Amino acid sequence: MIKEKHMTASSGWPVLLTAVPLLPLAAVGFIAGIARGSILLGVLSFLAIPALVMTLVGLFIVNPNQGRVVLLFGRYVGTVKQPGLRWANPFLTKRKISLRVRNFETGHSKVNDTDGNPIEIASVVVWKVVDTAEASFEVDDYVNYVHVQSESAVRNLATQYPYDTHEDGQLSLRGSTDKIAEKLQTEIQSRLHKAGVKVLEARITHLAYAPEIASAMLQRQQAGAIIAARTLIVEGAVGMVEMALDKLSAQQIVELDEERKAAMVSNLLVVLCGDKGTQPVLNTGTLHH
């Protein structure tokens, strides 16, 4: 792999301040040589003009957070990163490459999660070039390479985890956003290291069930939430009934046989677990009449 090499280019201001005034003087000398019949002056002035022009061709500007990849007849020489007006050999080819932080959002991809449910997913990727040589020579178009590989990584990650889960400790696309973001960043970075690119951040920006199953999955989520809530209510109600029986027995408020305890437990569970408010019932007899 071609690695980045730092190249130092001299300041272009001395060249600019010297060559620009000499260029019109060389033109005047050429005209004067022809007018006076001085062959030597005419030839020297004529040769000086293209030499000065070629010298000015070697000037180039490096903007902040920008690099210039320098080539000499197809051979990589180095990368100039010092901002300002610079000068180098006029025969060198100098390609611009941005070192700024960039971001883009992947398209909405339709893919099946690990449970086989079709979902739509998209993400935003923040990245920058850290090796100008790899970005220039290891891939054909590093910007397009980043986009294609990022979308591929998002699709691959979506197939490894469920959309949602009610089990503690299990990762899901919807419930474990921070950990999924870390895994997505790692997944994308592993695909882009050859392109001289560093992924600074990657996060899911859109996540939803596919339209054809969205209604059914919403009902499933609601049912799961209801079951989870009911489970918690029942656990709490059983604990309250147990505490009530223990206190009644410990303080000897009332003596209850097994049949009456069962009736009391049943009534308390109905009151504590019911959806609606309880209705008082006047019992004028006993349990058997």
Low-confidence stretches: none
**Mean of the pLDDT scores?**
82
Give the H and E element order: EHHEEEEEEEEHHHEHH
CATH class of the largest domain: Alpha Beta
The N- and C-terminal alpha carbons lie at a distance of: 93 Å
Summed up, the domain count is 3
Indicate the radius of gyration in whole angstroms: 39 Å
Classify the beta-strand content into a percent band: 15-25%
At the fourth CATH level, what is the homologous superfamily of the largest domain? Band 7 domain
Brief summary of the model shown:
By secondary structure, the chain is α+β, with helices and mostly antiparallel strands.
Walkthrough of the structure:
It contains 7 helices and 10 strands. It has 289 residues and is α+β, with helices and mostly antiparallel strands. The chain has 3 domains: 79 residues, no CATH class; 108 residues, Band 7 domain (Tetrahydropterin Synthase, Chain A, 2-Layer Sandwich), CATH 3.30.479.30; 60 residues. Strands 7, 8, 9 and 10 form a 4-stranded antiparallel β-sheet that branches. The mean pLDDT is 82.
Output the keywords.
4-stranded antiparallel β-sheet; alpha+beta; 289 residues; 3-stranded antiparallel β-sheet; 3 domains; Tetrahydropterin Synthase, Chain A
